[in-house]
Amino acid sequence: MKKRLLALAIGSMVVAPSVAMADKGPIVYGKVNVSYENQDDGTNDAWKLQSNASRLGVKGDLDLDVQDLKAVYKAEFEISVDDGDKDGQTFAQRNIYGGFEHAKAGTLIAGKFDTPLKTSQGKVDQFNDIQGDLKNIMAGDNRVSNIVQYSTPTIADMVKVNVALIPGEDQSAGAEDNGVADAISSSVVFDNGAFYGALAYDSEISDKLEADPTGDSKLNILRATGMVRMDMFEVGLLYQLAEEEAGNGEDSSYLVSGAVKLDRWKLKAQYGLTQADTTDEELTLMAVGADYKLAKNSKAFAYFSQVEADLADSEDTTFGIGFEHKFSM
């Protein structure tokens, strides 16, 4: 009897890990990013507690009765840690989708999520989600509804191609945005660990030129991104050309970023510039900061940023200190 119990116990320890490996979800995850900031627009200033795109989500995959095929899903919501309110909502939708992933054929997802052009920036933006974010001076930072995306498997462990189709879904009489793909977003991404590079293009995406926001609401955007990552250093460069579909305006932008890692410290800075060809408006972004790693998924940080518009004669400066905790279970 004792021998049978011992055999059962050993068998359960062998089988249990394999069961756990087969069940890869759902995974509950999120992050809390909070900063206490002084924001000054040149006329007024105020101290604010900011919830910088803090989020809560669930994601996972399900094995299907088809070889090498599984179902994938994700539901992610922004949470406002500061006051519990995001434009009147307790939970504001971020990236939400469902689809299929095949080991050899690639991944197909549909829902509402970041475009391939937006995600192509990788980690070049050292101040993502806070006031030094590149979205403050350039277009292309789009999360769109009704989007269907195909991504190839990673080729040679380094290259991936993404193509997304976005129907306009306009059923009104005489509407033009009623096709299969009224807007398209695509990217080719190369990542071997030490070097990250991406080339992305949006066609007729709903957006506005940052340097001239009064023009056409459909843009064609070309974005090229490169980043070198070493043990102690990170150097990134992003160039973008955004033009109105109607041909009335064009923004050219670039961003240069860098960081130095010293034990638990990460010292970082970036500079960006956007120029409009029609209005001669010029937007500049400057940000410097420091992160201190408290643990693998936790950090404290401080930063200073400045966004300036030349012709509008405006200058927004922000100084903030904060923390970020990431979690999953």
From TrEMBL:
The keyword Ribonucleoprotein appears for this protein: no
Lineage top rank: taxon: Bacteria
Cited Gene3D superfamilies: Porin
SUPFAM superfamilies per the UniProt record, alphabetical: Porins (SSF56935)
One GO molecular-function entry: porin activity
Domain Porin: from-to ranges: 12-309
Any GO CC annotation of this UniProt entry: pore complex
Key word Membrane present: yes
Signal peptide positions (record): 1-22
PANTHER family to which the protein is assigned, alphabetical: MAJOR OUTER MEMBRANE PROTEIN P.IA (PTHR34501:SF9), PROTEIN YDDL-RELATED (PTHR34501)
The protein's assembly and partners: Homotrimer.
Name of the protein this chain belongs to: Porin
Species this protein is from: Marinobacter salinexigens
Record lineage: Bacteria, Pseudomonadati, Pseudomonadota, Gammaproteobacteria, Pseudomonadales
